[in-house]
Each structure stands twice: as C-alpha cells, then as structure tokens.
Amino acid sequence: MTSGPFGGDLMAGPPPTHLPADPADAELAGGDAPAAVVRRHPASPAAWAALALQAKDAGADDVTVYAYARVGYHRSLDMLRRNGWKGHGPVPWEHEANRGFLRSLALLALAARAIGETEEWERCSSFLRDSSATAADELLG
Description:
Oligomer: single chain
Order of helices and strands: HHHHHHH
C-alpha cells in the first residue's frame, strides 16, 4: 500500500457515494402513481426512473422512455455532485437511496439502444457498470 504523509492508500479510488434518502421512494413503495410523485418531487431520480419504467412496461414509444430516463439521469447527476461525487467512482446498488440514479441510468442505456443510439448505449452501460457492477447485472441482464 502506498501512503502519503496523511496516511491512507493513495492508489485507492474515490470513496463510494451514498445519496441521501429520497422521499419519493416511500411514496412509490406505497403505491402512488409515478406521475403524481414526479409532480411532488420533480428533482427525484427515483420518481423519474419509476415513470420511465411505467412507460416502458405500458408499451410507450422508446423515445418517451428515453426522455423520462434522461431527466432522471440529469437529476441524478445534480444530486450526486451535491453529495461529493467527483464524476467517477462507485455508487453502490446496495445503498437503497442510490437506486433511483442507477435505475435511471440503466433505463437510459436500454432506451438509447432501442432507438439506435449506439454510442449512448455504450457510454451509459459502461457508466452503470463502473458505478455498480451489481446494478448493471441486475438491471441490464
């Protein structure tokens, strides 16, 4: 292990990011409609991911799913940055509050692939795997 004057492993990557609890999670778990939850919590990655998944499951056009997932992804980036994320590093699936981001990213990747946006599919699926291999395995199959 390489350590500097302050101790610690200088070769280690950034610490995992753990987002704060998302109030939308409880409302979604309680059966509230994703669109209603988005209206109450428009900055919630979990709400946007739920809306994208609902649209996908209902057979909505892939462009609609892509749009909802992209909003969730961008809301996620804002939240990640506010919580110390520096543009890379682990965002563990095991931390429940991270799942809105990870679901948004996976849904964006899948929708990008569905509309033929290969570069976006590759970028998003790689980003997901780099953030959480567990999430990538769970969400991308």
